[in-house]
Amino acid sequence: MDLDLAQVRAFVRAADELHFGRAAAALYLTQQALSKRVRRLEETVGAPLFVRGRGPVELTGAGVRFLPHARELLVLAATAARSVRGEPLPLKVDVWGPVHRPLSLLGELVSAHPELLLELSMRRSLGSALDAVARGDLDVAWGRPHDLGRPWPAGLRRRLVCLEPIAVGVLAGHPLAGATALGAAELREYGLWIPFEDRPPELTGLLRAYAAALDVPITGTALNLGVEHTIADLRRHPRRVTPLGAWWQLPEDVVRIPLRPTPFLPWSVAWRADNPHPLLPRLLKLLPGPGTVRFDPDREWLPEPDRADLPRTEARAS
């Protein structure tokens, strides 16, 4: 049986989209051309791969069974082509954003293990990266797997890697700038301000849950253009108190103050269970495991869903 990779690619994209029009547009084809490729593939494999009718597009049983092998064929073909040119296939990893722990952690790993060839992206939301992982456009995505507003996708695995502490920032000269740490009593007077309202949901959900746990008012503004924009807004509104990473590099006029209890942004990796990329097991082995995570429930804070991701001994301590 000779399989045409263009036909296999058309099938995989149509299976991901479950919509022939969107799949055709993604592959820069007409819908008629994509349908013809899928039909020819079905003739080759000897079975219909899609249920066709007036209802939504669905995979047949044969289509469900063929899909993981089709994905693997495309990866192997790309790997073979790169090997001829002496180009190994990079592992496509979304690190969420430029200032958070995943990017620096991967930088440390690549420095120590140059064989880890990575191609990075920054979608700034695990929710927007999960579909790309499921389609095979990404191999790994980082993020917080809770408050996504959707069920966890079937076929995707995840693992807690690390906790990034959250502090607050105020401008120099702010009444709280001299504090060694801030708790509920100090925060209630000024409240917390975040540079977004409901996106990304996994981050806003965590920060709003922390504010609710301390009975602290929290407000947000809709536009988030990154750390520099957040700092500029802080300068325009000098009485604001805003959460930020405890490890971030900040300008001299911004004072970082620890929080008590200390909230954490948990970072997990997500990947497709049937992903055949040869570098994926290597990366997962090199990343810290949940057993390296340390959490003190008497002085630190996580939402209940994230506590369930902690190692068992840590979860019991909470």
From TrEMBL:
Pinpoint the HTH lysR-type domain residues. Answer: 3-60
State the superkingdom: Bacteria
Q: Name one GO cellular component term.
A: protein-DNA complex
Keyword DNA-binding recorded: yes
The GO molecular function terms of this record are: DNA binding; DNA-binding transcription factor activity
User: Keywords assigned by UniProt?
Assistant: DNA-binding, Transcription, Transcription regulation
Q: Could you tell me which residues belong to the region Disordered?
A: 297-318
**What family is it from?**
Belongs to the LysR transcriptional regulatory family.
Q: What is this protein called?
A: LysR family transcriptional regulator
